Amino acid sequence: MVCSGGLLLVILGKLEWNIQHLGIYIAALALFHFLEYIATALFNPDKLSLDSFLIDHSPHYHAAHAASIIEFIIEYLFFPSYKRFGLLSWLGLFLLVLGQGCRTVAMFSARHNFSHHIVDYKSQDHVLVKHGIYSIMRHPSYFGFYWWAVGAQFLLMNPICLGLFVYWLHKFFSERIAYEEHTLNRFFGPEWVIYKTKTPTWMPLIP
């Protein structure tokens, strides 16, 4: 329903208010959460719950999306010509598609090995995924969300949120990746070290 509302806003926004990019953002956000649930349902059905939508991720997550919409609306009201869909919005749309595509492919490649939570113990069927998109980058799901979130701010042409998002995304993922890679090294030892050496993250300032 939210995705449909976003698509309706795309149509009306293009015809009446030139805010179709806000509709794209809302539809993309709904699609993101839907695909998180679908991947869990397909490959980790025993872990499936309403939390699998990742809607109630954290207060910070909700605040970030609320800030994105608020900044867009305020700047649209005071500087409507600045918010016209243009090259920056097209760049943002490209990054949204790239990010969503990489994250979805990562979940479908890792299958049951994918988890929304960092595990502290190694199950018997837990393997180090190195094929497909994982042969190109170490953390494609993080890469995907990073560029999805940055792309959303380009799409909306939100300069303030763009700067804040880049800062907090780097802080969050650098800390999360460091902890996750510590556990992966504990689980897989030399196999992980060799894989890490050959495979970058392709995320800014996170080698």
From TrEMBL:
PROSITE patterns: SAM_ICMT. Its EC number is 2.1.1.100. The chain crosses the membrane at residues 22-43, 63-79, 86-106, 145-169. GO terms for cellular component: endoplasmic reticulum membrane. Pfam families: ICMT. Keywords: Endoplasmic reticulum, Membrane, Methyltransferase, S-adenosyl-L-methionine, Transferase, Transmembrane, Transmembrane helix. GO terms for biological process: methylation. It is found in: Endoplasmic reticulum membrane; Membrane. One of its GO terms (molecular function) is protein C-terminal S-isoprenylcysteine carboxyl O-methyltransferase activity. It is an enzyme of class 2 (transferase). It catalyses: [protein]-C-terminal S-[(2E,6E)-farnesyl]-L-cysteine + S-adenosyl-L-methionine = [protein]-C-terminal S-[(2E,6E)-farnesyl]-L-cysteine methyl ester + S-adenosyl-L-homocysteine. It comes from the Eukaryota. InterPro entries: ICMT_MeTrfase (IPR007269), PPMT_MeTrfase (IPR025770). The keyword Membrane applies. It is a multi-pass membrane protein. Its main location: endoplasmic reticulum. Belongs to the class VI-like SAM-binding methyltransferase superfamily. Isoprenylcysteine carboxyl methyltransferase family. This is Protein-S-isoprenylcysteine O-methyltransferase. It comes from Phycomyces blakesleeanus (strain ATCC 8743b / DSM 1359 / FGSC 10004 / NBRC 33097 / NRRL 1555).
